[in-house]
Design goal:
mainly alpha, 4 helices, 63% helix
């Protein structure tokens, strides 16, 4: 769902959808948010989410897939 919103340039809704998916344990959504928080240019259609660069968020979302793999056993 996040991909659909971002393709339509509805970035706030895309971020919300990705966050919901991360809460459900979706590692690809964590990856998408991590890339979005790296602050890509709007021309980077695959990773741009209208977010400001935030290295702390990048670090947090980088840890999430590892954390979810160790806790969902």
């Amino acid at each position: 769902m996040g991909i659909d919103f971002s393709e339509r340039e509805r970035f706030s809704e895309a971020v919300d959808a990705y966050q919901e998916a991360v809460r459900a344990g979706n590692a690809m959504s964590a990856f998408s948010l991590r890339e979005g928080f790296k602050g890509p240019e709007p021309t980077e259609k695959l990773t741009y989410l209208g977010l400001q660069r935030d290295s702390e968020q990048v670090s947090r979302y980088k840890k999430l897939p590892t954390f979810s793999k160790t806790t969902n056993r």
